[in-house]
Amino acid sequence: MNTLNDNAQAGFELLHAEGATTPIKGWVHGVPLEDQAHRQLQNIAELPFVGPWVAVMPDVHLGKGATVGSVVPTRGAIIPAAVGVDIGCGMAAVRTTLTANDLPDDLALLRNSIERSVPVGNGPGGNHRRVPDSVGTLLTRSGLVERLAHIREKHPKIRPDRIDVQAGTLGGGNHFIEICLDEADSVWVMLHSGSRGTGNLVGTYFIEQARRQLEKRVLGYHLPDKDLAFFLEGEALFDDYVEAVSWAQDYARINREAMMARVLHEMRHRLPKFKLDRMAVNCHHNYVQREQHGGESLLVTRKGAVSAREGELGIIPGSMGTRSYIVRGKGNADSFHSCSHGAGRVMSRTAARRSITLKQHREATAHVECRKDQGVIDESPAAYKSIDAVMAAQTDLVEVVHTLRQVVCIKG
After folding, report:
1. ∠ CA(17), CA(68), CA(26), 5° rounding?
2. Is 29 part of any known ligand binding site?
């Protein structure tokens, strides 16, 4: 279905968009693009306030609300379901002065100590039993508590009371903490998480509000999917959502900072003395923000995509057992200065649990200290696209600064 256009040498293909006047530029050469994801992209491109085009990253796959691995610019409107419920989800990484020789032979002890310090998984077991003093201080200084109270005044149905016990926690699904080695055998810490339960509540609430607004609207065009319900600039709910989503994105960043601090604390107890290198990254890949592109002010939603402005550092993780990359953006305007946020799923979680065996998972992760049980089969490398193919498809978006290989991987 993909039609190569005259700009193919720039790295993108102009994807077929039946019924849409907005072009779809896809960096998908050599990677699979499922029909359902393609249809979802066409639905987004049909909206009159979307444009000047939609950018599609090589890790693209079907998502809820909007396609994962897409960059959706809008004029005067915002789509809460395109941002999703894991608001501010992203990556953080830091290089240490440790090397591979400083790591113990038995990495299970290091993994276990990190798991004891950083709650993992969803539900009450994934929360702090007692809020660490450092987390409480971080939340107080950040102003997040007061900002959330202001949001609640206008929207009392947003009643999360877990921001203290969930700051510095991992969550579940594809979130992870990893100890990695780069090409020089320097030790890195890398992690992936977002705004946890509170961000989920904020996202869910405003997605429902957008659907209710949709029922009252008189549209002069067809909306192909109710998950594309939107707020228009100038409406009270537009401003309220921008305030709430900004809060969740800031909370997600602080969550990663708190988690990183606790991981490093455990490493200092278990490993030789070390310092942190200046090389550090903390970037969202599920978020929306106002940006200038081509002299125009746009609201840019990155749904599973990372900002890759010229010289900007980012993180593109592989799956369990495969390589990850620290990258530097090339500032490609065609992609709205963006790149992929990972390898991208090639199987649904249900399909992965049905088709990947425990033996296959253990073989694929034999070189990594990680869970080898049935509970993480849906995160096994076979459930994801080839990270090599994904990186090859976006050479005009980023350059590789460091290549990382995991030696410890912690999943929720």
Report:
1. 40
2. no
Q: CA angle at residue 122 from 364 to 129, to 5 degrees?
A: 120
Bridge partners, 315 (sequence order): 326
Using 50, 70 and 90 to split pLDDT, how confident is the model at 230?
very high
Q: Is 192 annotated as a binding residue?
A: yes
User: Is residue 175 part of an annotated ligand binding site?
Assistant: yes
Active centre residues (catalytic): 341
Whether the CB-CB separation of 269 and 76 falls below 8 Å is answered with no
Is the model's pLDDT at 110 over the cut of 80? Answer: yes
CA angle, residues 375, 348, 360, in degrees to nearest 5: 50
Q: What are the structure tokens assigned to 401, written together?
A: 């600064």
Give the side-chain half-sphere CA count within 13 A for 293: 24
Asked if residue 405 lies in contact with residue 181, where contact means CB atoms within 8 angstroms, the answer is yes
| Residue 274, annotated as binding a ligand | no
- CA proximity to 78, closest of 225, 253, 298: 298
Tokens representing 68 are 């994962």
Q: How does pLDDT run across 52-88, given as a tens digit for each residue?
A: 999 999 999 999 889 999 999 999 999 999 999 999 9
* Whole-number Å distance between alpha carbons of 321 and 386: 12
pTM higher than the cut 0.90: yes
- Alpha-carbon distance of 300 to 53, in angstroms, equals 11
Percent of the chain with pLDDT over 90: 88
pLDDT band at 10 (very low <50, low <70, confident <90, very high): very low
Amino acid in the structure at residue 399: E
Sheet containing 24-26: order of strands: 2-3, 13-15, 24-26, 54-61, 68-74, 296-303, 286-293
Full set of structural domains in the chain with CATH: 81-283+308-345+387-411 (3.90.1860.10), 347-383 (no CATH)
What separation in angstroms does the CA of 389 have from each of 8, 151, 323? 17, 43, 12
